[in-house]
Amino acid sequence: MYPLDGTYSVEHSARLLRHYRYAVERMMRVMGGWLALTPEVSAKLLMGRHVWDNAQHADALGRRLPELRARAQESTPANEGVVAFMDALESPETPERTVERLVGLYRVLKPHVLAAYETHLHDANAVYEPPTRRILARCAEDERRHIAAGERVLAHLTPTPESRARAAAWQTRLESLLAAAGGVTGAGMPPGTARPSSPEGEAEAEEFIRLETRPPCWPLPEPLRAAVQGMGDALVARDGGGVRCWLADPLLWNETAESALAAGRFTSHAVVAVARIGRQLLVKIRLEGPSVSATLAARWAGGPEGWRAHALDVAPARSA
Amino acid sequence: MERPIAYDKLAREERFVRMRARDVAQIKIDQGEPPFPDLSTRESIKERVHGIMVGEMQAMEGAGRSVYDFPDAPWEFTLDMARQVWDESRHLEIYLRLLEHLDGYVGEYPETTILWRCACAEDAAARVAGVNRGLEGLACDVFNQLVHIARRMGDPILERAVDFVLADEITHVRMGSKWLTRLTEGDPERRRQAIAFQETIDERFNLGGVRQDGDHEQVLISIATEARQLGGFTDEEIQRLIKTTQRSQVY
């Protein structure tokens, strides 16, 4: 190939950059919005780290545009299909859909954007397009690290065959929308690339996962542990009298509390949180059944009769 | 996506317990304990660090919402907010590790959402005034004092880590000062409302006399005059804040 042969005109190059920028800017805003809606610390830290990288990518692409006779910092979707794809990617908002959020980012959009950058890098002329190539190379390097980290956190958050099937189904749905749009550039899907490895990204993700790990044993005084066990057993057995004997005031176990749990049949219970408020301990237990789960937070205080709950807060049963 | 996010929609793992700040304080008062950790013991420092960790999580979420909620704001504003997300995510990691350093665990104390309630202004100028100047100003006060106490206790891990966080927070206050001015250029009414919003937050976080101008060892939260100056607060603003702390209601 003659060194001055080129695939892209100035206008074409600018158009591609605007399309990349649309995807990257929107991805960055969506990640920012999702932080508050995502419970898992590992996923929060993961996306929190990547918002700034992607903002810098959008900025670098946007700054390059005036050098290509285009308006600075402009984002343009390639077509309505790309908008529809991004709308679908953004749609999982509820707390229990973290897996879908991460799949959209780390298994669909980021690998696709990386493949688009790599194709562009391969095709762009090495003599007169280094400014664009350098930006794309830097963005691609970050995306490799993001994807590797995202994969590690996703593996952590999909420990069961059911959760992995859910992730795969969502991936298939998004990939079909993306393919229908012709990718973020609208020009067709670039060849897929091998899953990138990044020791830095993987190590970072490992630490985020470690920070999500609960204590191996909740720090409860033994008499309180026995009291919590007793109350949990009574709740599972639907033994109102048994529950009341652990309460400082038996009236705390009232119709409201009882009806909140009435919808479910529970077979086990486990402590999921222990918080200190002065000398009192607030213990949250999760009640599990074949089809529903519920949580109950009780504030315990020690006294002459042993540990008793002085306040109860029951979250209604919901489908597991 | 919904805009803005109500405090009860903040997503948390089960190991967190969320309560109203006033309820937590009242339960402690009922036990004859002070409503706020006083930094006199390692246990009370751990409780303060846990509160800061939760605050950093909400700060990260809040900065993220500013990236999402204001697509029509100037691009440089979004860039600053995105940078703040990154900073706050590192702060969250730092405080999670400091909690381990102090033999604590996540969820050891209840999470209160008073910070988040202050971060939900619908106008971008009011939000940066409230969050970046009000809340991040408070962070400067708290961290400056914590650095001092860590140094006095001989805990270089706590001292060094928090000092780096403090440097970031000063940068965030500076961002707030910059964007309060730029976003309200030519619109004095918007500026007045944004500053009024910030002042309600300052007043709330005076915590009925808990925050004061005074020696780190003598007051529960001491105002960090120098850090605030570095962040773009004028001497007049700092003096006004000090005056308001003298007339705040007892909690």
Structure overview:
The complex is a heterodimer of chains A (320) and B (251). Chain A is elongated and about 90 Å long. By secondary structure, chain A is an alpha+beta fold. Chain A is built from ten helices and four strands. Chain A has two domains: 10-211, Ribonucleotide Reductase, subunit A, CATH 1.10.620.20; 222-319, Nuclear Transport Factor 2, Chain: A (Roll). In chain A, strand 3 and strand 4 form a beta hairpin. In chain A, strands 1-2-3-4 form a four-stranded antiparallel β-sheet. Chain B has a single domain, classed as Ferritin, CATH 1.20.1260. A two-stranded parallel sheet of chain B has the order 1-2. Chain B is built from nine helices and two strands; from the N terminus they run H-H-H-H-H-H-H-E-E-H-H. Chain B starts with 20 loop residues before the first helix and ends with a helix. With 251 residues, chain B is mostly helical. Chains A and B meet through helix 1, helix 2, helix 7, strand 1 and strand 2 of A and helix 1, helix 2 and helix 3 of B.
